[in-house]
Amino acid sequence: MNATIPGPDGRPRCRWCAAAPEFFAYHDTEWGFPVGDDRRLFEKLCLEAFQSGLSWRTILAKRENFRAAFEGFDFERVAAFTQADVERLMTNDGIVRHRGKIEAVVNNARRARELVEQEGSLAAYVWRFEPSADACAPPQTASTSPASVALSKDLKKRGWSFVGPTTVHAFMQAMGLINDHVEGCAVHGEVERARAAFQRPRRMAGAG
């Protein structure tokens, strides 16, 4: 099977874009481009957790609602959420009303705050798990990886929840820790160049 399909401009894109027309913009401007912003990294970990058992199309359609519900995924603010906030969110039909996942976001916000105190930033911590190119499977041939297993295991040890290896692998694909665009995709080279130019976040002196 061909790994690409023609995009709206006729250039080839990763085949998964065919699942929904709104995937093209997400694929072309976000997926796989490296991210060093703590809030965006936290948001993506949360949204990947919400996607568990659902489609990304469902989550992407509700993304702005999730952002509004969770204070723009500012984990300092979400960490202060109470049980009353959880109950309030359970009545919000603009998001996925799954108690375990909502509670996981609040828990993980508190864990993220702790992690920043220890590591200086969420980005510095996450990018420590970037695999070398020769350790990566061919694009889109795996749902987990040694790197995602390692990051998942460490997050769980730190008290995070809904961060299994498959969820973490999807997070790593989306946030540019690996370039999982297929070779024939028009965006593959753009992501490769962005990754080459990206300044990897480092642990801040004095952190921890």
TrEMBL record:
Keyword Zinc: yes
Ranges in coiled-coil conformation: none
Record's keyword annotation contains Zinc: yes
Annotated binding of Zn(2+), by residue: C14, H27, H181, C185
SUPFAM superfamilies: DNA-glycosylase
Key words, A-Z: Metal-binding, Zinc
Protein name: DNA-3-methyladenine glycosylase I
A GO MF label: metal ion binding
UniProt superkingdom: Bacteria
Record InterPro entries: Adenine_glyco, DNA-3mA_glycosylase, DNA_glycosylase
One BP annotation, GO: base-excision repair
